[in-house]
Amino acid sequence: MKHTRAAILAIASLFVGQTQAAGVKPEGPATPEMRDAMNRMSDAGIVEGKRGSLTFFRWSSAKPPTLARLGLWGAKIDNQVIALASTMPDLEGISLYETSVNDEGIQVLAKLPKLRSLAVLPIERYEKQGFGPTQWSYPFIARRNERPRITGKALQALAGVKTIESLDLQDAQLQSGDLALLASWPKLGSLGLPNVIDDETVKHLQACRKLSSLTLGNREITASELRRLAAWKSLRKLVLTCATLSDEALEALSALETVQSIEMIDCGLTDEHLKHLHGSPMLTELALPRNEINGPGLVHLAKLKIKSLGLEFNNVRDETLKDLAQLTNVGDIRLSYCFGVTDHGIQSGTLQGMTNLKQLALRGVKTVTDASVDDLVKIRSLEHLNIRQNGITTDGCARLKQAMPKTIVFK
C-alpha cells in the first residue's frame, strides 16, 4: 500500500532505480528555506507516544541528491504545511493521507515543474492477528470521518500540470462531471477514484488516451459498475482495495476482456469466493494479498491462464501448499508473510514440481530457514528468489547464491 499498499507501490514504481533511502539527508536540502521546510514537515508528522515522524522523504540518486518524493500523514498536515512544498522544486511525487489539506492547499502543487504523481488516500490501518501491522500501516491513528477533502476544484488547479502521470484520489470527494478534467493530462496512465462508476465516468475514462490502470476501493463495488468498465477498451490493470465484493461482482470481472492484471487487496476473500473468478482472455496476473485464503480454493484458479499469483498475508500453510500444484502455468508465486509455510512445506516437493516457476517470494516467512536451502536449490527453473526478512541466514543465502549462480537471490 499501502491508503492502500497497492497505491503506494504504484506510485513508487514510477521511481524505481531513481531514488534511494528516506530521511532528511544532510547534503540534500538545496537551500536553508528547504531545510527549514523539511524540519517543519517532519514535526507535523510526529504522533504523540510514537517514535520518529511519519513524514516520508525519498531522495534521488543524483549527486547531490534531489528530493523526489514526499509522504505526509495526519491531521497536522494542513494548507500551511503543504505550502512548504514550494521550496522543493524537484518533487516528482506527493502522497497525502487523511490530512487537513483542502482545495486551496493543493494549488501550490501546480507550481512544481516536475510533478508526476499525486495521491490523496485514506490511511491504511491493516493488521492481522499473528502478523502485526504492515509497512505503511498505522492502526494507531484515530479515524476522522469529518475532515477537509479535496474536490473537483483541486483538479482544476492542477489542469495545467502536463507532467502528471499518476493520480490516486481515493480520499477525495469527486463527482462524475469532475472527471472531464482527466483529459487535461496527456501523460496520465494510472488513476484511483472514490466515486461510483457510472456511464459518464466511463466516458471520461475513455477520453484519456494513455490511461490504462484504475484503482477503486474503500466501499462496496457492484457487478453493474464492473460491467460498465467493460466498455473501456484501454483498461489493462484493475486494483480493488478494501472493497466489499459480492459473488456476482466477482463473476462480473470476467467481462473485462482487455484487463491483463487484477489485484484484490484486503477484500475479505476466502477459498469459497475463488470459484466465482472466471478470468478473461487477457488476464495473466492475479494478486490476492491480505485476504483469508487457506489454500484449497486455489483449485478454482486452475481454469485461468494466469502466470503470476500474489498470496501475501493469506493463510496458506504447509498442508495446503500442495493446492498450488495445479497452477501449472504460473511462473511467479508470492507467498510473503504466509506464516503457515515452514521448512516442511518447502521440503514437500510441491514447488519443485512446478517446472515453470521462475519467481518465488518468501519474504517475512521466518519459519523458512537454512534447513530449506537444499530444497530451494532443487527448483531448477528459478530466476528470482526473495528471502528478505525470513529465517534464512546470511550463510544460507551465500549457499543459495553459490548453488544457483543464475538466480537472483534477494536477501
Class by helix and strand content? Answer: alpha/beta
Strand content: 15-25%
Number of strands: 18
Rg is 22 Å
What's the CATH architecture name of the domain at 1-173? Alpha-Beta Horseshoe
- In percent, how helical is the residue content? 10-25%
Find the CATH topology of the domain at 1-173.
Answer: Leucine-rich repeat, LRR (right-handed beta-alpha superhelix)
CATH class of the domain at 1-173: Alpha Beta
Question: pLDDT under 50 segments (min length 5)?
Answer: 1-21
Distance linking N and C termini: 21 Å
Order of helices and strands: HEHEEHEHEEEHEEHEHEHEEEEHEHEHE
Describe this structure in words.
- It is a single chain.
- This protein is of the alpha/beta class.
- It has a domain at about 1-175: Leucine-rich repeat, LRR (right-handed beta-alpha superhelix) (Alpha-Beta Horseshoe).
- About 20% of the residues lie in helices and about 15% in strands.
- The chain is built from eleven helices and 18 strands.
- It has helices at about 5-10, 30-45, 80, 105, 150-160, 200-205, 225-230, 245-250, 345, 375, 395-405; strands spanning about 20, 55-60, 65-75, 95, 115-120, 125-130, 130-135, 165-170, 190-195, 215, 235-240, 260-265, 285, 310, 330-335, 360, 385, 410.
- Strands 1-2-3-4-5-8-9-10-11-12-13-14-15-16-17-18 form a 16-stranded mixed beta sheet, with helices on both faces. The protein has a two-stranded antiparallel ribbon with strand order 6-7.
- Helix 8 (about 245-250) links the parallel strand 11 (about 235-240) and strand 12 (about 260-265).
- It is globular and about 60 Å long.
- About 45% of the residues are buried.
- Residues about 1-20 have low confidence and may be disordered.
